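From the pipeline queue, job 12 of 40. The input is one protein chain; the requested action is below.

Action: predict structure.
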Amino acid sequence: DALPICPARGEAGSMEEGVERRAVLEMVQANGTDDSCVTFVLHEEDHTLGNSLRYMIMKNPEIEFCGYCITHPSESKINFRIQTRGGIPAVEPFRRGLNELVDVCQHVLNTFEVRMQEYKEQTSAETQ
């Protein structure tokens, strides 16, 4: 069974009647398995998120397996599988990995903006 986790992009807070809400994240778990082995289906995503997130999650020593695949070149979704050690629910390192990836991206953005401002100030001073 697939469990919808969150609303589709651009539809958060949209409560219009007749508008179908499609989940951007589903959690798929085989019958008879525990929470330590889960496949997450991420809709409207590709290798950009998949490989970055896999890297962040694999840094965690509690992870036994983490991998992803693109279901088909014509579909924009990935199957992202996590298997943990010690009965830790797979959703925990998944959530932690996403948060750490957001932190890294924010750091890169902040550094870029600071350097761009320094560059603009430097070129402005040189032209005067």
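Job complete. The first helix runs from residue 47 to 58.
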